[in-house]
Amino acid sequence: MYNTAEHTQLQDTLKRFIDNEINPHVDEWEAAEIFPAHEVFKKMGDLGLLGLCRPTEYGGLGLDYSFSMAMAETLGHIHCGGIPMAIGVQTDMCTPALARFGSDALKREFLAPAIAGEMVGCIGVSEAQAGSDVAGIKTTARKDGDDYIINGSKMWITNSLQADWMCVLANTSEGAAHKNKSLIMVPMKTKGISVAKKIRKIGMNASDTGMIYFDDVRVPQRNLIGQEGMGFTYQMLQFQEERLWAAANSLQALENCINWTIDWARERSMFGGKLLDNQYVYFRLAELKTELESLRALTYRAGQLYISGQDVTELASMAKLKAGRLMRTIPDSCLQFWGGMGYTLENLVARMFRDGRLASIGAGADEVMLGIISKQMGIHPGKVGK
Ligand SMILES: Cc1cc2nc3c(=O)[nH]c(=O)nc-3n(C[C@H](O)[C@H](O)[C@H](O)COP(=O)(O)OP(=O)(O)OC[C@H]3O[C@@H](n4cnc5c(N)ncnc54)[C@H](O)[C@@H]3O)c2cc1C
Q1: Which listed residue (241, 242, 291, 314) is catalytic?
Q2: Which has the closest alpha carbon to 185: 212, 157, 147, 222?
Q3: Phi and psi angles of residue 44, each rounded to the nearest 5 degrees, phi first
Q4: Rg (alpha carbons) of the chain, rounded to whole number
Q5: Do 224 and 183 contact (CB within 8 A), yes or no?
Q6: CA nearest neighbour of 340 among 287, 264, 273, 284
Q7: pTM
Q8: By CB count within 10 A, which of 61, 241, 253, 374 is most buried?
């Protein structure tokens, strides 16, 4: 999948950056329940890591999506899930629609600084009453002169406590739910925006998650991305990449989880031998590795087909689903072999057990993936695919 010298160079650069600039601070940032996104992103921007697949006119490198996947996978070396997620939001979740459909002026104002690491972005889709059901969002953007006036709220927004801007999905008309939504760029310092609360979580602690209110927030209509009414479609279009990103991001993290556990089981003495000498233990670890390699094969296949221009809605959804499943079963099985040590806060497998639980919920829950896959298979009672 990552078969060029450029992929290797990217992964080596990123791995060095993680070892020197991120992992030494992860425990502190986890305890603080926030990490210094501006500081970290600026350093990453200086290394050219925040715009791999973005247009060169705005500071990106214009590479194909295999590079984003290579980066997502390498981010799995970070000793927590929250920081990779926050980086992924910046590189692959709040910027794709802006890069594809935004005007030149919008891209200069918001995309170029995000690629340079000078601005932190976030994506505001989910609301308290509408997460899986994106069409059900209630936030509105009503026209007033040359402006939009935004009212409503967004829930669960990664990076939102430190973001400079949010790409907001809002209803811009009363029409059909899939055709009345638009994506609008909103600077977070605009009057009327407030952080309703910082959400405390069971995992992903280094990543800040906020609930944000919009109370008569006025932004110029030129902040609209692409065409009015196309926001839902733009958002759906980028889901293929988001799912590939999520699947690729789980691979290295899961491999580390298995390897750390092998090292531990090899050292841990009990009953006159080592923990690893028990057939149940080494068989289970062999099984987990087999599961991981099946996810890798699926993810790489989906990625390769995507890069060759094919629609991979089905395969990318399968990869996201399988990644969600394995982010639960692999850390859970590994944690068991750590005994009491696996039940401590500072244990990295325990952290992955907590952080990884989100993979089956965020960016499309497992059941949403199953719905898409069954539609693609033509076996869903609703819409028929093939
Ligand atoms: C830490 C964190 C970070 C996040 N970051 C962002 C962000 O940056 N921006 C953003 O917009 N959102 C973000 N989200 C929101 C996330 O995408 C939603 O939580 C997710 O889409 C699920 O929506 P929900 O929480 O409203 O659950 P609901 O939609 O209420 O779903 C609840 C459960 O119902 C089940 N379910 C859903 N659909 C079906 C179905 N069709 N059939 C059967 N069962 C089903 C699933 O088990 C699901 O977990 C984040 C969430 C978290 C927890």
Answers
A1: 242
A2: 222
A3: -70, -40
A4: 21
A5: yes
A6: 264
A7: 0.97
A8: 253
Instruction: For residue 35, give both structure tokens.
Output: 């990490």
For ligand 1, pick from 33, 34, 126 the residue to mutate: most ligand atoms within 8 Å of CB.
Answer: 126
Q: Is 123 in the pocket of ligand 1 (CB under 6 A)?
A: yes
Give me ligand 1 centre to Cα 262, in Å: 33
Residue 331's alpha-carbon distances to 67, 111, 240, 327, 384, in angstroms, are: 27, 36, 26, 6, 36
Q: Residue written as tokens 């099985």?
A: 333
158 ligand 1 Cβ < 6 A: yes
> CA of 270: how far to CAs of 276, 277, 316, 368, in Å?
10, 10, 43, 44
CA distances from 187 to 22, 203, 217, 335, 386 (A): 27, 28, 10, 42, 42
Phi, psi of 227 (to 5 degrees): -95, 145
Q: Tokens 């829930």 identify what position?
A: 155
Ligand 1 pocket, 367 CB below 6 A? Answer: yes
Q: Which of 57, 76, 60, 33 is nearest to 114 (CA)?
A: 60
**H/E element, 152:** strand 147-158
User: Which atom belonging to ligand 1 lies closest to the Cα atom of 201?
Assistant: 1
C-alpha to C-alpha distance for 42 and 10, rounded to whole angstroms: 17
Taking the chain (386 residues) in runs of 10, the rounded mean pLDDT of each run is 92 98 98 98 98 98 98 98 98 97 98 98 98 96 98 98 98 94 98 94 98 98 98 93 97 98 98 98 98 98 97 97 98 98 96 98 97 96 70
* pLDDT on residue 48: 97
Residue 73 near residue 248 (C-beta atoms within 8 A): yes
Distance (Å, whole) CA 73 – CA 69: 6
Residue in the structure block whose two tokens are 């926030």: 34
Find where tokens 């999520």 sit: 246
pLDDT of the residue at 382: 83
Active site residue 242: yes
